[in-house]
Write a structure and sequence with these properties.
The structure is a homodimer. The model of chain A has no long low-confidence stretch (mean pLDDT about 95). The first copy, chain A, is about 35% helix and about 20% strand. In chain A, helix 1 crosses helix 2, helix 3 crosses helix 13 and helix 6 packs across helix 10. In chain A, a hairpin with a 4-residue loop joins strand 11 and strand 12. The first copy, chain A, has two domains: about 140 residues, Peroxisomal Thiolase, Chain A, domain 1, CATH 3.40.47; about 240 residues, Peroxisomal Thiolase, Chain A, domain 1 (3-Layer(aba) Sandwich), CATH 3.40.47. By secondary structure, the first copy, chain A, is an alpha/beta fold. The first copy, chain A, is globular and about 55 Å long. At the A-B interface, helix 2, strand 3, helix 3, strand 8 and helix 9 of A face helix 2, strand 3, helix 3, strand 8 and helix 9 of B. Strand 3 of chain A pairs antiparallel with strand 3 of chain B.
């Protein structure tokens, strides 16, 4: 298997850009990534996206490639709901690991502001099971509320403890120029914010976001030529769980995340203890808590409690979500997995323009649905 | 690059299955493909699909894997409009060529009967450019009508000559037990059928279809163990063109198809002249005519005329679309590219249950949009 390196990264600010098209957002991230590596023409473009169909647009690979001046190369869109970025990265990684190509661009892009909020929220629920779940009228926040209530009850986690995560994420995002929510909040603010789906309150949830992030991957031989600071993609693991929650083993587990991490750790030859910095999928505070546990960063039932006790900040190992995470950097769903990879690559290179975590080994974890699919990526300096 | 083999294939009948769910159709094709290779558990599932979002369902990889008893493996959905099957195959091929996996299932599935015809037709137009084309109200048939009119005018092709393709496809489909349209038609029938978008008539166009097709891919070492008749995937090429027609070089060209074929021929070390049997993307009769030209089976402007003169039937080289093609086998859009691969693999194995083309080397060509993306696959016995 050929080794794969990150030789260029780029991203747009995350926010709501009513006046910008999806292809325009994508091109901004692409041009930044290509510019970092001498503007080499990639041989393929893999696009991570979930919901462009809400704006009646499919066939994004040709649309974006053409707009970015890349007509004629190979490409396709990859979808795994909110985990689309992660699986797009796996597809792109594989195209270089196989030797089919030597330079592959992978881009995550989402424009959720294209439609009114109720339509977009409904679209996000397409990550769940239409026949077994949506037919009953439950929303995506509602599904996560079931998990949050179960988790709090099973492990005796208080509302205050659950609120520590969004507070930390807003703190981190304050220093990230690409973040969507730049506002300091307190535990009290979280507890007073409106209920979305009891016990999930507004500040427990990630916002609706637009944004694009791009990574140029290259073979080992090319990487040395194209970059002074290539980042090695040491491991990529992916796993699927059931789409619907009824069929799950237990509601406080994210088994796909655990399996995907095991595969990535094995490929990279590292363990949980080696990770210096991580960007994890905190679509909801409870998603962060359980993810910390499945990745081995916290004992079972202790994820939220450790955050409340002050863990995972700079100086700790690992530093988790120095970007502000999905919660405050924002969650442009199909792009999120690529944002995480861009951010961790920059942390390892030492040029992330927000909180600097430093370190040698980084991890990203990206989920689709309520953990129906999971991708873990291990990066090394 | 590791060699890749087809060790199992399966497909459902193509039709309108109002009483069957998308996961049920997928599982039928999957079980047939896995059964052919000793029911080995694949390590990943790649799903080609375009329009499940019309039924509010994304995250198909987890949905289908779980229903088929494959929870825990890796997977994702790949989309490139009507060319989704072809690009899903490229992604799956790459996962084995890289050595990441040794057994990968690739499945194309589509259920267009989920919504009323006007909603589905609108969805099919998401393959085009929403901002530059759909905003003007043009349909997908309308875009192809522009191409057909231009092609007929530029090369002096008559309405009768254009009608020879659907007649041949209906003839071929009569012998294919998996085909949707089992009815002999004449050139007169085509010319009397209702106008959809002048000059495209109903019988010039492929029907709306449901169906699923699956292929189990394996590494060379495993292929010998799992199958007595492994088919070698000798070449896979893919290329992107502009999504919108306005930006095209010329309306009578499908340059992405030409480029994708060049890449596939080069990888396989064969030329047009070596192809014994082909399944090509005849979404409309004119798509077939231009595809025959871009693949080198006909001189420019002669594709439709050669069909009218009796070429591409059994005994000729190549035999084209012995299945009946998109026109009469049916066109379950995201599944079509995988149907083609299943059919050509069976032709080379000698067990296709319809018209037997025989031969040593086969080709499939799958398009997304009006040729916005193209995938060419070369199979060898």
């Amino acid at each position: 298997m050929n080794k794969v390196y990150i030789v260029g990264v780029g991203m747009t600010k995350v926010g709501k850009f009513y006046d910008r098209s999806i292809r325009e957002l994508a091109a901004e991230a692409i041009f930044k990534a290509l510019d970092e590596a001498g503007n080499e023409r990639p041989e393929a473009i893999i696009v991570g996206n979930m919901l462009s169909s809400l704006a009646e647009q499919e066939n994004l690979a040709s649309l974006i490639a053409d707009y970015a001046g890349l007509r004629g190369i190979s490409g396709f869109k990859v979808e795994g709901a909110c985990g689309s970025g992660g699986v797009a990265f796996l597809a792109a990684y594989s195209l270089i690991a196989s030797g089919i190509f030597k330079k592959v661009l992978v881009i995550g892009v989402e424009k959720l502001s294209e439609r009114p909020t109720p339509a977009t929220s409904r679209g996000l629920a397409w990550a769940a099971d239409a026949d077994y779940e949506l037919v009953h009228g439950i929303s995506f926040a509602g599904l996560n509320a079931l998990v949050m209530r179960y988790y709090m009850n099973k492990y005796g986690v208080s509302r205050e403890e659950m609120a520590a995560w969004p507070v930390l994420m807003h703190d981190n995002a304050l220093q990230n120029p690409y973040a969507q929510l730049k506002k300091k909040i307190t535990i009290e603010d979280v507890l007073k914010s409106p209920v979305i789906a009891d016990p999930v309150r507004l500040y427990d949830a990630s916002p609706l976001s637009d944004g694009a992030a791009a990574v140029l991957l290259a073979s080992e031989e090319l990487a040395r030529k194209l970059s002074d600071t290539p980042i090695h993609v040491a491991g990529v693991g992916n796993a699927l769980d059931s789409t619907d929650l009824t069929s799950r083993y237990e509601l406080d587990r994210l088994l796909a995340s655990k399996l995907s991490a095991e595969k990535a750790f094995q490929m990279a030859g590292v363990t949980t203890e080696d990770i210096d910095v991580a960007e994890i999928h905190d679509a909801y505070g409870v998603t962060a808590a359980i993810s910390l546990e499945e990745l081995g960063f916290a004992p079972r039932g202790k994820g939220a409690k450790l955050v409340y006790e002050g863990r995972f900040r700079v100086g700790d190992k690992p530093v988790v979500n120095p970007s502000g995470g999905l919660k405050a950097r924002g969650h442009p769903v199909g792009a999120t997995g690529i944002y995480q990879i861009v951010e961790v690559a920059m942390q390892l290179r030492g040029d992330f323009p927000g909180i600097k975590a430093g370190g040698e080994v980084g991890l990203t974890q990206n989920l689709g649905g309520v953990g129906a699919n999971a991708t873990t990526v291990i990066l090394k300096r």
